[in-house]
Amino acid sequence: MPREFSLLDALMPTLFLVFLASVVLQTVLDRIMGRCGVYRHVWHPPLFRVSIFFCIFSVLGLIALR
Amino acid sequence: MSASAVSAAGSWLPTLKQEAAVWGKTEGWRWIFVLKSALAALLALWLSMRFQLDQPRLAMITVFIVMRPQTGMILTKSLYRIGGTVAGITASFLLVSLFAQEPVLFLLGLALWVGLCTGGAAFYRDFKSYGCVLAGYSAALAGLQAAPQPSAFFSLATTRLSEVTLGILCAGVVSDLIFPRRLSDQITTNVQNRYGEFMAFVHSSLSGTATPAELSAMQMRMADNVIALESIRTAAFLEDPEVRSRDVKLRRLNSEFMAASTTFYSFHQLLKRLTKNATPAGEVLTEIYDSLGPVLETTAASPRSSNTARVAARHIAAFRVVLARKVKQAKAEVPALSAPQNKVDFDTAIELLQRFLHELHGYTTTYATLSARGQEANSPDDITFATYTDPVVASLAGVKAFVAILLIGTFWIATAWPYGASALSFAAVTSALFGSVPDQYRGVRHMTIGHGSGYVVAVLFAYLVMPSLDGFMLLAAALLPLLMIGSYIITCPRWIAIGTGYVVFFCAMLAPTNPMVFNPIGVVNDGTAALLGTAIAGLVFMTLVPATGAWFKRRMADQIRGQVVMACFDPLPGLLNRFEGGTYELLHKLGTTKHLADDQNQRLVAWILTVREIGRAVIHVREDARRVPMPYPVSGLVQRSIRSTARLFRRLSARHRRETLARVTLAMNAIRHEMGLASRTPHDKEILRRLLASLHLIRTALLDDETALAAAGGLPIQTAEVTVHAT
User: Which residues pair with residue A12 across a beta bridge?
Assistant: First the structure.
């Protein structure tokens, strides 16, 4: 995949799109886990959330840029 | 000897632990906040240097604008803030592309945008207000820098956007990860405190130990509490899934609380009136009322666990049975009670007391089940809390910002001032912040103090410390104490504007860049211009329709009375909650505007209380009148008394007050007659009795010569009585 794409002739990093996709994915996942009560068994929910986000973003980013 | 040393060690260790625990509760969270915000600012600084953004100071400034100690709702806010920033950048993009060659039109457009955003910041609250602040601020920043070189605008705008967003994200992540103050914890403490406070309030007004001033202060605190819970709840709804599942219950808790406290207030007022005139009903009621004390006493000891609350709910339910017995007994024993005038007084008071107990029972039950998991299957979900801000006052803030920007812009164009841009951008930032604070008067003063001190410190730092710094680590170490001072000031709610002003100005003047540019003369020039911008914005805000003026007071009073008009005419579904929410909001707003002289403030508070009593009674009348079928003349009379009440509150006069009294009395007579008819079922009679009680409540409130209504209407009580008996 190319590193940059052109949005109305302005070059944007592809990672930005990946970032947005990860945010969406994370929000959906967060809702589902909240509904199932996963956070009740987690020591530090915000840390858990951020870590999940980092995992999603890194995996997607690595896939996209490979 | 060793034994005594051990015992000494054993004695001071627990003491130390205790001290540490107390410190952690009172002072500890402040230091956590101070460290967190300093860390977030330095992180933002480092990251933006690392990413080679050209103005790392913007990221730092944003961190300090965004970080707030009281609440943990950073992530929720972040969304709105990023949205606001994007909107601001887009607006500046439009302005530059349209008017890059036309400074006058450009500044006019910018002033319009900033004015709009300031109005929005004053109109909305919490995170929406912040979004507006950031929209104005980022438009001014990006637009002003790009105006001289439109061809470079796009890259400039994206850089500004990344800097502000970076600041927002750093603040959000740091405050969420490190010792987060969880919203659900805050909700729990808020709810617990309020429960305890309300019980104490009821108890102390029962026993008569508290002075009226103390009672009024307690009510103010509870109003603040209601508004605070509402804003935390809205934020938590987006943030915390645990809270989301309890959302309906929380809303119900708030509405039940408001209902119970209003009913209690009405009851208390009625009782005061009855005992003052030494009516037999008053004496009997006081006796009944006194027996309520012990029931609440067990409850007033602030039930921490849901179990004690459940016990308290059971006590209250038991008392309702006792109450019914006592009422029967009193009616049998005191023959004076069956005289028509006394009977209606007594019935109304008992009706209110029963309603209060019912509502208190509901409130306690909801409180008890709050921590239980799971949603009730059939809980009604029609409770909305309407927030209300005066659009005229908000748009006035916008107009002020517009004028300030226009003034500075004119000066800039007329004199070709090289530092006009920084004056203008600071005027934009500060006026957006002024618009969002509740007390603009104090906000302006404090912000100016903060900016001034930030300026002095920044100049000293730039001359004395900066030259000997080498590398990021040293810079961070040197900045840390100065940033921490600012954040510590922010933790005192009273001086929040001073702290913010200081830190923001300090970061802005220092302008750390990568590679570092050493330019003390630039700091002085830029700083003077920025201070001037703040000062002019402040002057405009303080002089153009000042918030202490007579116009504001009249406006506030009209708004308070408008609540009753709303109660009279708005569509019924959900009206009770809207009415109570609006009244509480007004009470809260009065609590935050300290600039009104004390007696004026007291008068407005008295108005709110009267309005709350009458408005609620009107809503009850309307609800009950709908439930029971009545022949036209009777329902027409009820309608007319409502309309007449609305007219009275729209236009105060002795004539309208007399007229309203007459109409209410007529309606009451008609209903009494209707109740006597044999064709009425017991159910209908019950509703008619309630209707009568509500109407009687309105009547007594109108007759009372100690309320704000009497003070404004200027009608001696005798004339009123004569009118009533004549009808």
Answer: A5
Mutating which of B161, B179, B239, B242 best tests the A interface, going by the most A Cβ atoms within 10 A? B242
With a CB cutoff of 8 Å and minimum separation 6, the contacts of B145 are: B156, B160, B421
Local confidence pLDDT in tens for the 66 residues of chain A:
677 777 777 777 888 889 889 989 988 998 888 778 787 788 887 788 889 999 999 999 999 887
Q: Do B177 and A50 touch (CB under 8 A)?
A: yes
B157: which 2 tokens? Answer: 């705008």
* Nearby residues of B277 by Cβ (< 8 Å), 6 or more positions away: none
DSSP B545: S
Which of B114-118, B545-549, B633-637, B669-673 reaches the highest mean pLDDT? B114-118
- B707 vs B6, B194, B261, B268, B712, CA distance in Å? 67, 27, 18, 13, 9
Distance from CA of A4 to the nearest CA of B (A): 15
Query: Scanning the structure block, which residue is given the tokens 């008009």?
Result: B565
ipTM over 0.95: no
Provide, as residue numbers in chain B, all residues whose Cβ is less than 8 Å from the Cβ of A47. 177
- State the average pLDDT for chain B: 79
Q: How many other CB atoms are there within 10 angstroms of residue B631's CB atom? A: 10
Candidate from B177, B241, B242 with C-beta closest to A47 = B177
Neighbours of B475 (CB within 10 A): 20
| Residue B113 near residue B91, CB atoms below 8 Å | yes
- Alpha carbon of A23: minimum distance to chain B alpha carbons (Å): 12
Chain CA centroid to CA B20, Å: 33
Q: Look at residue B645 and give its three-state secondary structure.
A: helix
Give me B645's structure tokens.
Answer: 């009440």
Decide if B241 and A39 are in contact by the 8 Å CB cutoff.
yes
- Once rounded to an integer, what is the mean pLDDT over residues B111-123? 89
Q: 């009687």: which residue's tokens? A: B696
The CA–CA distances, whole Å, from B342 to B337, B369, B553 equal 5, 40, 39
Q: Which amino acid is at B75?
A: L
Could you report the per-residue pLDDT of B261-297, keeping only the tens digit for each?
888 888 888 887 777 777 777 777 777 777 777 777 6
Question: Are the Cβ atoms of A46 and B176 closer than 8 angstroms?
Answer: yes
- Window from B99-103, B450-454, B678-682, B718-722 with minimum mean pLDDT: B718-722
Question: How many Å lie between the alpha carbon of A5 and the closest alpha carbon of chain B?
Answer: 16
Q: Does B241 touch chain A (CB under 8 A)?
A: yes
Question: Are residues B446 and B454 in contact, defined by beta-carbon separation less than 8 angstroms?
Answer: no
Who among A34, A44, A47 is closest to B241 (CB)? A34
Q: How far is CA B602 from CA B45, B212, B676, B690, in A?
A: 48, 11, 44, 32
Delimit the domains of chain B by residue range. Answer: 29-181+389-543, 185-239+246-369, 550-726
A-facing residues of B in 163-192 (CB < 8 A) are 173, 176-177, 180
Q: Is omega for the bond preceding B103 within 30 degrees of 0, making it cis?
A: no
Verify whether the Cβ–Cβ distance A39 to B242 is below 8 Å. yes
* B375 interface with A at CB cutoff 8 Å: no
Q: Which of B240, B243, B371 to mutate against chain A (most A CBs within 10 Å)?
A: B240
Cα–Cα nearest to B724, from B656, B660, B646, B640? B660
| B242 chain-A contacts, CB cut-off 8 A | 34, 39-40
A51: closest chain B residue by CA = B177
CB interface of A with B, residues 27-56, below 8 Å: 30-31, 33-35, 39-40, 44, 46-47, 50
CA neighbor of B83 nearest in space, from B7, B36, B29, B134: B134
Residues 6 or more apart from A43 whose CB is under 8 A from it?
Answer: none
3-state SS, B433-448, equals HHHHCCCHHHHHHHHH
